[in-house]
Amino acid sequence: MTQVSLTNLIAGAHSGLLVSFPTDTVPALAAIPEKAALIFAAKQRSQDKPLILMAASAEDLWLYVKGSENEYKIWQELARKYWPGGLTLVLPASERVPKVMNPIDPTTIGIRVPNSAIAQTILAQTGPLATTSANFSGQPPLQTMAEIEAQFPKVLTLATTEYQSEMRGLGVPSTVAKWTGMNWQILRQGAINLDISSDNQI
To answer: In terms of pTM, does the model score above 0.90?
Structure first.
């Protein structure tokens, strides 16, 4: 059995183990950023598919990206509108991001704040985590902790008794929008129907 309590899951993440927990979209497979290689190995994931840095608040994420004052203003405006929620922003990465999170193109990083009380509780105590959906690469995202436990027997999954009162995730991955330096490019339509109006461009 790898279902553990919230306390043990947080401790496991701190010590560099792979963990899984529910979010507002699909359950996450997560590790501290320096241990992101574990996620690629577990998922049999191609190195050209970067991971997402997930945190409990936007403030925890801005140190991991870099841009001009004007760019920060545009990014933060969009974040205020859609976070917490199912939107991942792909932005220029700062030196703080371990290259192992995006081995092929370490100049960018996807960031997100989930609209999930249990995910935020975990992330507030672990700090930002490298995350992706819990499934083998190319297969549909797994939806329950039981499915994840069966496919990833060594991953610490959160015991279902810890979050019974929480709404189940949408089952749809986040929308992904990349900053091009001038405006936004939608890389994946997902949980949020993004309004990229002219006020979100330079």
So the answer is: yes
